[in-house]
Amino acid sequence: MGTLYYGDAGTPIDIDDRALAHLKIAITTKLRRNESFMLSWRHVDTPTPGRSSLWLHPAIPLRFVFEAPIAPQLDREWIEDLMRGANSGGGIVLDLERAAGAPPSGPEPARAA
């Protein structure tokens, strides 16, 4: 399980290493271009159901910490899907089923984040 630290938020965000590696590529690409965007996800396996969203901005410190010492193999299609989301009005909606290694079930329907 990897961890995303964003700004001075007191609570780090735990994300599967594989998902975090893919997010890292999409997030750093957008921020390198000085572009802000939204990142959203549903809470899974937590005592508090719901969802969260972050507005990612180039001026806010960001750190990716991976549990595994070796980077996972990246899925180019998944990175392209994340980039399409980042470039849309709704931003990236992290699909935790895909993060767990389940095959994608086709395009996700648009939904409010």
Strand order, main sheet: write it out: 2-1-5
Proportion of strand residues: 15-25%
Summarize model confidence as the mean pLDDT.
Answer: 85
Q: Tell me the overall shape.
A: globular
Count of separate DSSP helical elements: 3
Report how far apart the termini are.
24 Å
Topology order in helix (H) and strand (E) letters: EEHEEEHEH
The residue fraction in helices comes out at 25-40%
> How many distinct folded domains?
1
List the helices and strands and how they pair.
Elements: E1 2-6, E2 13-15, H1 17-32, E3 37-42, E4 51-56, E5 62-65, H2 76-86, E6 92-94, H3 96-99
Parallel strand pairs: 3-6
Antiparallel strand pairs: 1-2, 1-5, 3-4
Features:
alpha+beta; 3 helices; three-stranded antiparallel β-sheet; disordered C terminus; 113 residues
Description:
The protein has 113 residues and is α+β, with helices and mostly antiparallel strands. It has one domain. Helices cover 27% and strands 24% of the residues. The chain contains three helices and six strands, in the order E-E-H-E-E-E-H-E-H. The chain has a three-stranded antiparallel beta sheet with strand order 2-1-5. The chain has a three-stranded mixed beta sheet with strand order 4-3-6. Strand 1 and strand 2 form a beta hairpin. Helix 1 (17-32) crosses helix 2. The chain is globular and about 35 Å long. Residues 103-113 have low confidence and may be disordered.
